Amino acid sequence: MYTVVTHSGSFHADDVFAIAAFQLLLGKENMQVIRTRDEAIIAAADYVVDVGSVYDHDAKRYDHHQVGAPVRDNGIPYAGFGLVWKHYGEEICESYEISEYIEENICQPIDAGDNGITLYDLKEMKVKPYELYNIVSLFNPPWGSNESKDDQFSLAVDWARGLLSRMIIKGQAAEKQNDLIAKVYEAANDKQILIFDEPVSMMSVIQYPEVELIICPDDPAANDNWVATCVRRDYDTFESRVSFPEAWAGLRNEELANASGLNDSIFCHKARFIFVAGSKESVLEAAKFVK
User: Fold this and answer.
1) How many CA atoms lie less than 13 Å away from 27 in the CB half-sphere?
2) What are phi and psi of 49, to 5 degrees?
3) How far apart are CA 15 and CA 11, in angstroms?
């Protein structure tokens, strides 16, 4: 049984996610979490995070409150979660790529928030994103309540562990999908249109600049439909490389069948980047009309 110590009192996203990461690494059933500032207990622990004023990977100490605590190359200082993830993320994910994705999208925003760094400027709409540290703060007991901070911390850790687990599962699936897409791409004579026998994400095809359209089943568990999706020009835009005819925009069923000449037509998005029909043959035919 491992003893993992973090600080007592109110909690934040970095200590919550750090303990969640340790539970994924060691197994929740194999570790005891102690929230304390007692120096004797801290000294005796197997792992310490976000308390103790020491960062020493060999000693398994991961605090960031001391002078000289590490800072990333991009200027974002590490917090407890980031230090734990730096050393154990790849082992937890069993993938360097997934670990790096979580580092960039979860660790760095959490660490920035914990260190008082704002990562964005508000535009003219003046609307702030609701960030992970905002969500974690909801688990802290409300003013005037009799809720236990330790109990609420455990609930927050369970939530954070579930989020990380889901990201890892999705990441592992995405890697398998990318392998499939790469095989289909390499085998395709016409790389402008890729055809798949199972659903794939259009976003995973953006990396191939020649690909304009993907064709695949819609949702085999729910229907027998097929869908053709126009590929976006880049990851940061909704603009597609090609589009279906303007006359098809927003039409459904009989109206779309009349406009397209395809009897089993079902739907064309008003932005003209998706066409759905009842057969593979019809979406292949519809693909001839994109430009």
Assistant:
1) 4
2) -140, 135
3) 7
d(CA 94, CA 169): 11
d(CA 159, CA 89): 18
Tokens matching residue 250: 């927003």
* Rounded Cα–Cα distance for residues 234 and 281 (Å): 28
**Three-point CA angle 222, 237, 134, nearest 5°:** 80
pLDDT in tens, 80-136: 999 999 999 999 999 999 999 999 999 999 999 999 999 989 988 899 889 999 999
pLDDT, one tens digit per residue, over 9-64 is: 999 999 999 999 999 999 999 999 999 999 999 999 999 999 999 999 999 999 99
Contact 160, 14 (CB under 8 A): no
Across 133-168, b (16+ Cβ under 10 Å) vs e yields beebeebbeeeeeeeeeeebbbebbebbbebbeebb
Matching residue, tokens 């994109």: 290
In angstroms, the CA 200 to CA 45 distance is 46
